[in-house]
Amino acid sequence: MRTCAYCGKKGQLSKEHLYPDCLQSRRDGDRVYSSNAISDKFVPGSALQIKDVCETCNNGVLSELDQYFCGLYDSFIDGRTVRSGEQVQFRYEYDDLLRWLLKMLYNNARAGKAAKKHVDRLQEYSGYIIGEESIPPEVLLLARLTVPFEGENGEIPPSHMTCGLIELEEFDYRLGETYLVSIDSFSFIVVALVGASNLFRQKARELLKEDASLGETSRLTPGVEQTRLEASDATSLHVDGQLVMADWAKWIRRTQKD
């Protein structure tokens, strides 16, 4: 019998959508792109599935995390296009938010058959995701408000969901890996460092702050329940360009058609 990707127990495994049903049902159309799940293709969220999660995890703790984020989506993200100069007072529960983001990234890596080293790295957080381990001190979490890209044919807002590994211009990848989960105008950057020392964390924060490809971000921290997010100078090109650049022309046609 196969083992669950989260709890490691053997038993009957079930299907889980990469993008949860409660999130898909709240959105119009199929505004979804996933870079390393189905390469260079636009797909509806229902097409992205994994089949290695036990029913206990799937219907229990993972479902609870989905419900948490869908509530967050209702409060802050739903159809909202943030423009330059705007601010959002963002209220969140750090632990639940980070666990959900890591779940998305771990699921995406397995669904897209990412390199084993990336899957293995994210698997290190499987115990934390299901609530059996404490917050990993080597993980940094950043949030960003993305504004529309002003193209030749008008405004192209950030209007779909995407997640996966990203590469930043100034980051030293000997320190760790960087990931993006983006839904409409809200982007979350997860940085998984190889060490949790203050030196590692300080160096990473300095590089992230200096990275022009990332845009202005706010760091989310445990024990803080809200923060003021300001619209960054990052546009939908920053979000989708990093994951979709190989298919940028198709993305523009699709966005204008929608």
Question: What does the model show?
Answer:
The chain contains nine helices and eleven strands. The protein has helices at residues 21-24, 55-59, 61-77, 94-111, 116-123, 126-129, 198-210, 236-244, 248-257; strands at 13-17, 49-54, 87-91, 139-147, 149-151, 154-156, 161-165, 176-183, 186-193, 218-220, 226-235. The strands form three sheets. Strands 3, 4, 7, 8, 9, 10 and 11 form a seven-stranded mixed sheet that branches. Helix 3 (61-77) crosses helix 4 and helix 4 (94-111) packs antiparallel against helix 5. It is globular. The termini are far apart. 40% of the residues are buried.
Q: Could you name the key traits of this structure?
A:
258 residues; alpha+beta; 7-stranded mixed sheet; two-stranded antiparallel ribbon; 9 helices
Instruction: Give start-end ranges of low-pLDDT stretches.
Output: none
SSE ordering: EHEHHEHHHEEEEEEHEEHH
Distance between the termini: 44 Å
Q: What would you call the shape?
A: globular
The percent of residues in helical segments reads 25-40%
Mean pLDDT, all residues = 83
Q: Calculate Rg over CA atoms.
A: 17 Å
Number of DSSP strand runs: 11
Main structural class: alpha+beta
Total helical segments: 9
Note the beta-strand portion.
25-35%
Largest sheet: 7 strands, mixed
